[in-house]
Amino acid sequence: MKFTINRAAFLKELNNVSRAISSKTTIPILTGLKLVADDSGLTLTGSDADISIEALIHADDPDNQLAIESTGAIVLPARFFGDIVKRLPEDNMTLDVTEGFQTEITSGSASFTINGLDANNYPRLPEIDATDAITLSGDVFRELINQTVIAVSTQESRPILTGVHFTLVDDQLLAVATDSHRLSQRKITLPKSASATYDVIIPGKSLTELSRMISDDNPDVEMRLSDNQVLFTIGDSLFYSRLLEGNYPDTSRLIPKEATTSAEFDAKSLLASVERASLLSHESRNNVVKLTLNSADAKATIFGNSPDVGNVEEDLTPKELTGDELEISFNPDYMKDALRSFGQTEIRIAFTSPLRPFTLVPTEDSENFIQLITPVRTF
């Protein structure tokens, strides 16, 4: 196996595939990068058994400057190989595999020889032959991931909550995540969906890596499912992830239908205020920020307090404030994550009582995106 390629084009795909490679895997060969050269081009594969990524570098794309002298396959130690490629001196590089899987990498006057492994011992990727596929624009899918994955649990005690629950019924794609302290739910109406109905849980870690692979020049992302795997196709890259097994809790009953107090804020301005209040709350043990609302005076105030450092108080300017007087405490980090997910828009926050979860929705599209936060009991 021998080929020459443009180093920048190779490095771009290498960086994507490396997202799936972990040094902590229990299968030694999975710490390596699999390279296969054939008539269609060069295929790079990385996997940690949970996530697998495969990328094809086309031989007929002049930008890749890919010239394959002889076909073949090899598995190379990913970390060393990646460091070598990043530091090679010239724009192009040549990789030549000789007997005993020894691999020579040359660029300009630099030459490295590293030991490879037999690619036949590399685990096969799952075969997903599902005919029903969901296709979403890349920017919409990336936004959906970023808006929901913030609420997945990081605690392995309830593994099912470490994923995002996707359901598809009648062209309505619903994504929900909760860690039992907060919840994020996003709904998308698909323009033309397959006839299938989906009900799957995709690990949050997988979705985070996937969102980093979706760039602005990826117009569409295609999603296919099998029994225990999901496959995302992004241009010439394939992203496989295992699915989580089990039943996701019914989260619809957690969302309050009515409110006794509601307020409208500019999301960006409120985020800045919560960030200021949390400067002091982070210094205290309980990390709590308090919000008071008084519709009679049309006044809202936010408080942050640390017994050791001091306190902060700031008057807010709600666009609208109606309902009962209220004093409520919450974790500012949850609030900041929620507010960032709205971007630059106006939001409505609806409260039912000081100890009941409250919801945040955009004022213009309140049916399709909801963030929910459970308050903190301070007495």
Automatic annotation (TrEMBL):
Pfam families: DNA_pol3_beta, DNA_pol3_beta_2, DNA_pol3_beta_3
Alphabetized SMART domains for the sequence: POL3Bc
Cellular component aspect of the GO annotation: cytoplasm; DNA polymerase III complex
GO biological process: DNA strand elongation involved in DNA replication
Subcellular location: Cytoplasm
Gene3D superfamilies named among the record's database cross-references: 3.70.10.10, DNA Polymerase III, subunit A, domain 2
Domain DNA polymerase III beta sliding clamp N-terminal: 1-126
Top-level taxon: Bacteria
Record-annotated DNA polymerase III beta sliding clamp central domain positions: 136-250
Residue ranges of coiled coil: none
Record keywords: Cytoplasm, DNA replication, DNA-binding, DNA-directed DNA polymerase, Nucleotidyltransferase, Transferase
CDD domains assigned: beta_clamp
Function: Confers DNA tethering and processivity to DNA polymerases and other proteins. Acts as a clamp, forming a ring around DNA (a reaction catalyzed by the clamp-loading complex) which diffuses in an ATP-independent manner freely and bidirectionally along dsDNA. Initially characterized for its ability to contact the catalytic subunit of DNA polymerase III (Pol III), a complex, multichain enzyme responsible for most of the replicative synthesis in bacteria; Pol III exhibits 3'-5' exonuclease proofreading activity.
PANTHER family assigned to the protein according to its UniProt record, in alphabetical order: BETA SLIDING CLAMP, DNA POLYMERASE III SUBUNIT BETA
Family to which the UniProt record says this protein belongs: Belongs to the beta sliding clamp family.
Subunit structure: Forms a ring-shaped head-to-tail homodimer around DNA.
Name assigned to this protein: Beta sliding clamp
Source organism per UniProt: Secundilactobacillus collinoides (Lactobacillus collinoides)
